[in-house]
Amino acid sequence: MQGLVIKSTGSWYNVLADSGERYDCRIVGKFRIKGIKTTNPIAVGDRVKFDLEKGSNQGLINELLPRKNYIIRKSINLSKQAQILAANLDMAILLVTLASPRTSLGFIDRFLVTAEAYDVPAVLVFNKLDLFSKEGLEILEEFKAIYEKIGYPTYEVSALKGFNIPIVQDLIANKITLISGHSGVGKSSLINALLPDRELRTGEVSDWSDKGQHTTTFAEMFELPQGGFIVDTPGIRELGIIDIEKEELGHFFPEIFRTSHQCKFNNCRHINEPGCAVMAAVETEEIAISRYESYLSIFHGNDTRH
Known about the structure:
six-stranded mixed β-sheet; alpha/beta; five-stranded mixed β-barrel; globular; 23% strand; 7 helices; 306 residues
């Protein structure tokens, strides 16, 4: 039998079979993917082959079918290993808030680099629009301008008040979409707005740390009434970049990659080389300074917790 992994709880996987039935499945023996060390060999969004155990409604997964893409991050506890957040995605939405909690430009850039590296189209959705002051709205426009200029679509919503939710519903129709972001940015509230029949627990943002409480402990996929699925993931406090070589990093900043063809040297690192078109573009603000700073930070291996 074949099916789609719609929920992972560490040792058990809920699989939606192509027949429409759902089965709780385990993995057969030692199950590791060649070439990459991950804490979870199978992720939500994976397509798998499985057999039902005799006399039972539970299954054994015996084969992982080829993935078209996935989103990955460094495992928090095991620095050498990675965690696959979800696989076979049509789109990844990063939910961003400018306060309570604040999503930094560096965090946004790390997410976008990861999406580029693993071939997942990314979109930024700014939430909690109902809380914005006049000054906050000006900062929002500056943030949006940086990313729209590069080519990333941006949207603004209030998940709590229902503002612009129909736009997001149209955006994700008939797609498999990952929704990610810091704890407390309103992922559960957004998913509740997109799926009114399914009430996910929402967490308050704690005053002392300005970090949201984790309300999602395992990735899970929810079917959309208009077709497609959304993948809810645990809130991400930090996003370590993994498996990207320094020489390749510029490829995953679209504006740096486009500009790098004009550099004097074809192996330019865009740090201190003469005739670097990227550094010249930063000087004229053709490339945003914040994006270049993120490039340098990742290049030098400075993992961020913001």
